[in-house]
Amino acid sequence: MPKRPAIKQSDEKEVKSNSESEDEALGDLELDRTGEDGESDDTDSSVYSELEEDETDDEEEDEEVSDEGEGEEESEGEGNESNGEKDNEEDSVNEGSGDKNNKNKKEETNTDDRIVKIENGEITYRYPVDATDPNLSKKQRERNLRRLARRAAEEARARDEYAYDSSDEEEIRNTVGNIPMNWYDEYPHLGYDIDGKQIKKPPQGDTIDAFMDKMENPEWGVTVDDPLTGQKVILSERDGNIVKRITEGKVPDPDYDLYAPWVDFYTGEVMETSLRGNMPSKASFIPSKAEQKFVRELAQKIRRGLVKPRSAKITKEDKEQKFYMLWNTDDQAEDGIKRISNHIPAPKMKLPGHEESYNPPPEYLFTEEEKKKWELAKEGGGRLKLPYIPQKYSALRKVPGWSNFIKERFDRCMDLYLAPRARKMRINVKPEDLVPQMPRPQDLQPFPTVCSITFKGHNNMIRCITIEPKGQYFMSGSDDGTCKVWELQTGRCLKTFEFGGVIKSCAWCPNEALSLAAVTLDNKVLLINTGVGDKVIVDRTNEILTEEPDNTGYVPPVRVAQAIKWTNKKKEMKDYPAGTLIAIEHFKAVSKVTWHAKGDYFASLCPEGDNKSVFIHQLSKWRTQLPFNKAKGLVQTILFHPIRPFLFVATQRNVRVYDLVKQELAKKLTSTGKWISSMAIHPGGDNVLVGTYDKKVNWFDMDLSSSAYKNLRFHYDAVRSVDFHKRYPLFASAGDDNAITVSHGMVYSDLLLNPLIVPVKKLTGHTKYDDFGVQCLQWHPTQPWLLSSAADGYIKLWT
User: Which of 276, 298, 527, 559 has the most CB atoms at less than 10 Å from its CB?
Assistant: First the structure.
């Protein structure tokens, strides 16, 4: 058997240098010789097959161009390789006969400075190739590089991808997953390994053992417990530094520079001269109509929801890395999830009772009468004790499906989704403590409680009543075309004035030196001498008002002259009853007349007069004023302030207060009702009472606000009249429900105290007529007595 050729000592050095250069070349090529990257053999073969083709082409070129010396070296190298192949055959035969157990063995060893590869019993010799030798020519180095690449490809093909298994690194591996480890506190094990065996907890020493370990173990400060395996793990120096920097609030990476110099991408220099010398055109300052149209259309589409605006751009702050508390436990709530920590569970559904059973007890089954009552209550929308009728079945399989199942499930889902839940502190409070402490009505007397006198004489609805300043007589006006003067305490009718038309309003003059009353008839205001009381006052009234005052030099304005006409001529007043002194003719129908507190001025209201609806008349000079040039709405009623020169004008929704001296709007009160019907002013002048047709009574405190201080709901029908008492803290309201509500309304002189409003008595006695009830209220000027007139044609005195 031929022997392997011997290698000289000089050749050994050469081979070693070639092997070192081979390693360097392989490092430069970054070829994988260990098989750790896990690439497939197919990719290696495809890559290196191209290298082999290129190698063959280059070798052909080298054979043509190379010189003789290169050819000799190439032949020597080929001879060596061929000898190596023969020797490989001989060694494979010898080893195959000597040791049959090494057939499947793979290994690489260095023998005689040659690369020996033993695979499946075959031995391959490879001499090292140097691709970095500076003595070689460029082509030789390239050829050696290709050979190195070819050898690396062969090794990659023959490499076993399962030779290394990383799963053997860790001896103990817990397979319970990412769960709280405190679940295993009561068990002797921590979990299970790959084979399904329990991982026992390591023995835990006592406090003395821990103290001794702390004193003697130099690595105690960097030792932590692994919760998955219970083993003690020693942190590396780098891990310890990272934990230390995090606890100190520093950046974990010590090599990271927070304060690196800023690189300016743009220059900060400002060009002082423009690039062009011409002036900007005028069109550059005028907004483009096309852009304006585009923006307008885009805004309309956004409002309609056809176009959705772009979402906000992500700023640099949003992209920055956020740091969180590393050592917080699960039971410590963060600021962002406080609501979740205070979670309120949904209320559970009521459990089914005996009545929901398919075989309920007999006492839960309905009788025929109970079924009829249940069906009537369901049709009428009444409250049902049960939403179904209990039924009895002999077996569960005979029970049909519940028809309202889907609806009940849907309602339950909507309750869970929409019903808000909140925690409330339950306080034990008595119901009596929630009611405000109001004085007893017995402590607020006197106020009217009973009907003392009923005045009968009118045949139709009595729309208005007015009382004399002293309280001895009063006048009433009715739809039967008459006005009657009554004596209050006796109930006698002293005089009757027949006008032949509907009397909508009447008002007694507050001046005690005159026996005078104003009455509205269609479009006229008639001033009548009542003829009752002191005869001297009656005669003086006739003397004063029969003579026309001297108005020389006074020319009434055109607007006033077209709307108002004063007269006291007997020829023109022959159709009016005896005692009529003056007639004031208006251009529209008059619905209201009211006197000023002094008795010289009175105002009349024509609702259809637009800007000529309110007139202010002066009795002593026979002059009339039109205070408003513009219509402020449909005027309902007017009143003078009892002390100041103010005029209150009530429209449908508002009450306007005008200063007659300054001729300006002083205040505007807004009612909560939709249509104002009546109005009354407190004797102090700072509080106003407003009644509305939609059953409300509003109390206004003018010093407090322009909106209602109290909304009083005493009536269930339209409120027709309200009135204040001049001396007592009383006020009353009445309406079409035939009820008169008497209330205590104390107004304090201290501005810090709010008015005290207490309803004390509800008076009933009138009857309805054509859906009309009580029409007018009037308090006695000195006594706590109340007069009321209604549609039934009666007047009642409540004392």
Answer: 527
Q: At what angle do helices 138-158 and 41-65 cross, to 10 degrees?
A: 150
- Give the span between the Cα atoms of 452 and 468, in whole angstroms: 19
Q: What is the pTM of this model?
A: 0.50
Give the model confidence (pLDDT) of 313-357 as tens digits: 788 777 777 776 666 555 555 555 554 556 777 788 888 888 889
Amino acid at 556: P
Q: For the beta carbon of residue 337, count every other beta carbon within 10 angstroms.
A: 9
Instruction: State the sign of the Cα–Cα–Cα–Cα dihedral 70, 74, 80, 84.
Output: positive
Phi-psi domain of 747 (left: phi exceeds 0; alpha: psi -120 through 50; beta: other): beta
Element (H, E) at 498: strand 493-498
- Tell me how far apart the alpha carbons of residues 173 and 464 are, in angstroms, rounded to a whole number: 103
**Residue closest to 510 by CA, chosen among 440, 376, 601, 582:** 601
Structure tokens at 509: 């003059």
Q: Specify the DSSP class assigned to residue 437.
A: -
With CA atoms as reference, report the closest residue to 337 among 348, 324, 327. 324
Q: Which residues contact 652 (CB under 8 A, 6 or more apart)?
A: 633, 634, 636, 674, 675, 676
Phi, psi of 76 (to 5 degrees): -60, -45
Distance CA 712, CA 744 (A): 13
Q: Rounded CA gap, 83 and 5, in Å?
A: 8
Q: Which two tokens stand for residue 283?
A: 């069109």
Closest CA to 32 of 48, 52, 51, 53: 48
DSSP 548-578: PP--TT----HHHHHHEEEE--TTTTTTSPT
Strands 601-605 and 592-595: antiparallel
Taking the chain, what is the end-to-end CA distance rounded to the nearest angstrom? 154
Instruction: Profile the chain (799 residues) by mean pLDDT over runs of 10 residues.
Output: 41 43 40 38 38 43 41 40 41 40 40 47 55 76 78 69 50 82 89 89 87 88 85 86 89 84 74 71 82 91 86 78 64 52 76 89 90 86 83 90 88 83 78 79 85 88 91 90 89 88 90 89 88 87 83 82 84 81 88 90 88 88 86 87 90 90 89 90 90 90 86 88 91 90 88 85 86 89 91 89
Tokens (6 digits) for 235 = 């942190």
Spell out the SS3 assignment of 90-120.
HHHHHHHHHCHHHCCCEEEEEECCEEEEEEC
Please answer whether residues 328 and 334 qualify as being in contact, where contact means their C-beta atoms are separated by less than 8 angstroms: yes
Query: 472 is written with which tokens?
Result: 């001895």
Burial annotation 655-680 (CB, 10 A radius, 16+ → b, else e): bbbbebeeeeeeeebebebeebbbbb
Residue range 737-762, pLDDT digits in tens: 888 999 998 888 887 888 888 888 88
What DSSP element (H or E) covers 257?
Answer: none
Which bin fits 321, alpha (ψ -120 to 50), beta or left (φ > 0)?
beta
